[in-house]
Design brief:
Blueprint: E1 10-13, E2 16-17, E3 21-34, E4 45-59, E5 76-82, E6 91-105, E7 113-120, E8 125-128
Antiparallel strand pairs: 1-2, 1-5, 3-4, 4-7, 5-6, 6-7, 6-8
């Protein structure tokens, strides 16, 4: 079984690699629809709609205009989440998302950080580089 470290990962917004990524997460979900009826001995469910959301934590970099700078609140972006790098044959996840949040945080004894939240619109696809 292969294992990977987080330092192998990266994010691309479209074809542009996002600068200064510290961490990211992507979550896929599926709704369930109860379809139990009278006389059933146990509840039963059917699969409903699926969806995804993601977040990215970065060291703020105002010069990254095609990565961090493309993530203005309300923007529609193509997110590519690479857990193991982007060399030929590496698995990654891609989908279109709407930027729903972009916060920046600073402290006198630390780096300026930014967090970006994305709500997927449409399917998240697993593919290879």
């Amino acid at each position: 079984m292969a294992s990977h470290t987080g330092s192998e990962g990266l994010i691309k917004i479209g074809s542009n690699t996002m600068a200064e990524v510290r961490s990211w997460s992507v979550e896929e979900t599926a709704e369930t629809i109860e379809n139990s009826s009278m006389g059933d001995a146990a509840r039963t469910y059917a699969l409903g709609l699926t969806g995804w959301s993601g977040s990215m934590d970065v060291w703020w970099d105002e010069t990254d205009t095609s990565g961090q700078g493309a993530c203005d609140v309300g923007a529609s972006i193509t997110c590519n989440f690479y857990p193991e790098g982007a060399t030929t044959g590496d698995t990654y996840y891609t989908g279109t998302g709407l930027v729903t949040g972009h916060s920046r945080t600073a402290s006198f004894d630390g780096n300026v950080e930014a967090s970006i939240s994305v709500q997927g619109t449409g399917a998240l696809t697993e593919t290879t580089a």
